[in-house]
Amino acid sequence: MAILVNEKTKIVVQGATGRQGQFHTRRMKAYGTNIVGGVTPGKGGAMLDDIPIFDTVEEAGADAAILFVPARLMRSAAVEAIANGLSPVVCITEHVPIKDAMFIQEYARQAGADVVGPNTPGLISPGKALLGILPPHIFAEGSIGLLSRSGTLTYEIIDEMTKNKLGQSTAIGIGGDPVIGMDFISTLQRFEDDKDTKAMVMIGEIGGNAEELAAEYIKEHITKPVVSYIAGKTAPPGKRMGHAGAVISGNTGTAESKIHALNAVGVPVATMPHEVPQLLRDLL
Amino acid sequence: MKLLEYEAKDIFVEYGIPTSTGIVIDDVANLKAALYKLGLPVVLKAQVLVGGRGKAGGIKIAKTEEEAMHMAEQILSMEIKGLPVKKLLVCTPSVIEKELYVGFVVDRNKKKMTLLASTEGGVDIEQVAEKTPEKIYKVTIDPIIGLQEHEARNTARKLGYTGEALVSLTSIIDTLGRIMQDKDAELIEINPLAITPEGFEALDAKLIIDDNAMFRHPEFAKDMKETQEFTPIEKAAKEAGLAYVELDGDIGIIGCGAGLVMASLDVVNHYGGAPANFLDIGGGATAENMKKALEIITMKSGLKSIFVNIFGGITKCDEVAKGILEFNPPVPVYVRMMGTNEEEAKRILNEAGYDLYGSMQEAAEAAVKGGK
């Protein structure tokens, strides 16, 4: 078991014929992901290796979508996927305008679709499906669910986990933007409901109060062990640290506040990334 | 992109919001002409992109021409929170009976914009939210249909207005919502919205445009390039397309991926070091990118060592190594690299006498020790 996708999920890649789209479509397919087609308006009828390219999402007959389209086209492409009943809809692209992200999220909420991102490395259910740009060789099958606002920091921690024989059920980058689809709370609940996930690793960072809200939620609704790491303890207020969402505004969004909230509900927070495996072992 | 008060006010005026405008000067020599048009007294307001201008002495009232000249000179030569004041807004003071607050902000958790309105204007809205949250009226805006007129009207009524005042205030709130929508604002604020004998008047204006939406706003590209919110090194980095933030310490940091770079700063700090910067070279960096990144972080004086942390999925380590050699940094470099072509990178760096570390904590600790 895994959350959101498995080896049977039929995937359509929107924006499969661009440079990034081609590279990652081939890599996802090589990993064993069930890619049923790509969509690039005007290129219907073409092939990418043995993958058919369509003009519309409707023709592909997919269950879920991953999007590599340029930021300015993200809103219309994501709405097309949602309107066709697909879920999850994984929006990889960075720099999507916040107004468009809000539009997508509201439309998805009304349709009951799960949106991952934007500005996310996507997700992987090791051994089953890769729906994103994560480097698959560092992952291993197992029973830890990982959710993160970051990309490379996730790889760093996954690498430590895999070396310590702590494999993953699903690892998901929820995105580094201020407005994203699946958040810590909704993703934690999916892992809670997944019988093959035994514990969760939640990687947060400065900005907003999603970690504080997740802490409250964990206290009330999550029975499985959760460990955490929070990046940005040394970040100054008012500066965006790479991710659009990683900014301390006034007193909101500091690492201290997040670490305090998590510790208060019994979630251990690693001081450094490489300490995560030990914290997991202590709880399992 | 943050707009200066007068830039935001120009947009308010264009949309028909009653606004206290005036004349912008960047040189005291132009003050006389402004006074001739406006008369006395005048308010002199420093145009900078930070809050707390008033407290810092950046807003003054002058009753005579002599006073105005003296104050203008003073304000135009001052720095507020590190930012030099380059422009001054000169305007006629308003007779203020009461001050309100109206604004739209992003609610990250609801994933929607929220309209905030309060009878407690003229002070920081975060303070009002903390001390008297019951005095803030909130409306969550549907991202698909946008702010509706009746939501603006409900808000005006809840703030206690009736009759003509209710109609005027409704129109101001509704218009502000339209500007937010049209201009891709991630924050728009009138604080204070004053009540004067002539009616409502926006005395100050705050507007932040979403950087990611610039492709549909060519109107901002032209004349607002002189933005003041970045330091010279931050500007150079922006031009090179690198995410850079200047910090107070003396250990330079380069990494790939925002989260990993933030963690690198924290680990350096954990070992007692002080990071000089945040720099993310992104995925798939070339030797040229790495060279540019080193060039930018070494623009800051007083660097003692550099910590390079690469965990490459698509980044080729040998490219990064070549970039280091080409630049040949003036201070010791401590490198941690993992990923594609890692072995080749090790060979290149070892031959040139650089040390490679197996983990980020080892490299960070060495960078801190080496920088002492």
List the helices and strands and how they pair.
The complex is a heterodimer of chains A (284) and B (372).
Chain A: E1 11-14, H1 19-31, E2 35-39, E3 47-48, E4 51-54, E5 64-67, H2 74-83, E6 89-91, H3 98-111, E7 115-116, E8 122-125, E9 129-132, E10 141-148, H4 152-163, E11 168-173, H5 184-193, E12 199-205, H6 210-221, E13 226-231, H7 255-264, E14 269-270, H8 276-283
Parallel strand pairs in A: 1-2, 1-5, 2-4, 5-6, 6-7, 10-11, 10-12, 12-13, 13-14
Antiparallel strand pairs in A: 3-4, 8-9, 8-11
Helix pairs in contact in A: 2-3, 5-6, 6-7
Chain B: H1 5-15, E1 23-25, H2 31-38, E2 42-46, E3 59-62, H3 65-76, E4 79-80, E5 83-84, E6 88-91, E7 98-107, E8 112-118, H4 125-131, E9 136-140, H5 149-158, H6 163-183, E10 185-196, E11 199-202, E12 206-209, H7 218-221, H8 232-239, E13 243-246, E14 251-255, H9 258-270, E15 277-280, H10 287-297, E16 305-316, H11 317-327, E17 333-340, H12 342-351, E18 356-357, H13 360-370
Parallel strand pairs in B: 14-16, 16-17, 17-18
Antiparallel strand pairs in B: 1-6, 2-3, 2-6, 4-5, 7-8, 7-10, 8-9, 10-11, 10-12, 13-15
Helix pairs in contact in B: 5-6, 10-11, 11-12
